[in-house]
Amino acid sequence: MSEVRTARTYNQRHIPREYTPGGRRVSIYVSWSYPAEAGRDAAELDNRFSTMTEVRRVAWPDYEDPKWADPYRFQQGIAGSLELFFWAWVPFQEFVEEVTGHPVPVYQRIDQAGFHTPLDERVLDDTDVLFVFGLDHMVTEQAARPGEIEALRAFLGREDARLVLGPHHDVGASDDLAVREMEYLHHGDPLVPRQQRFATYVRDLMRGLGVPVMNRYGLRPATREGNRIAPLSTVRDLDPKGWLDGVTNFNFHMHLPHYDVTTDVTTEMTAEKTAEVTAEKTADASDAVHVLARQPIDLTRPHPFSEAGNTEFNMFLWMPPAGDRAGDLLLADSTIFSSLFGGDESLRNFWRNLVSK
To answer: What is the pTM (predicted TM-score) of this model?
Structure first.
């Protein structure tokens, strides 16, 4: 990746990118309200990001350089940890710009200055590949508006369009505190509380777009020697476009969501009929959603999902064009695009495939 040689700018409007054949225009949309996340009470145990001070304590001495630790240079509250996300997305942005020839803007639903940017034509008109990072805590109530869903539906009506949804984990959904403790001990990250539920906004989008998927849990991947993440279990027969060409693994993160392919049976009927319809809907969902990659779970740490007999979780999904939707719809967690959690040639191949295939 080339060295950045220009000064950083802020507080100006995006300059639209002209279409160029063979060079897709990529945009990132972060679903949070920055003020709502940064303004969460640090005395609350659950459903908030860590403060920068907590990050420094847990990761000591990784962030003791003055550029992170000096309160006159870097924010030490929750806002500081939010800024780490932006630092960590820069390598992905730079890599994609080199591949496509276009800069990669990052939009926030509500930014640091309080400007609200819904998903509408201002974001979508000069975008060919859109990543939506579902990092909004549910308690902040970031609901997708009907107009945003309609705008995305129109966007996906373009043959060259691609939507990558990344709802983050859902830790501690159970009311049973013992279950929450089991989940916490499973992922083993002291910076994640017993309950941390994400992605109301992306769940709204999935519901509105007819994506039969739900983000669940925060599962710790199995690792190999050197604490490297275990290779993916892939289904190449379901991947004619080659999304996973040259890809054997993603990056390690302690708590990753399982993308559960769901059903929606809402009518009243007998148990037998319900089972019959559920089976039909499961088959329909399986036809619509291709689970291309699963991640082995760290089975040395108990979790309700693995206790139920599961040894892998759904990591990367694809919905091929169907009906009025001419574009591709994919699901992959936002951590895959963050340098906070490492990266290698396999990961960069995945990035390249998503924006160039």
So the answer is: 0.92
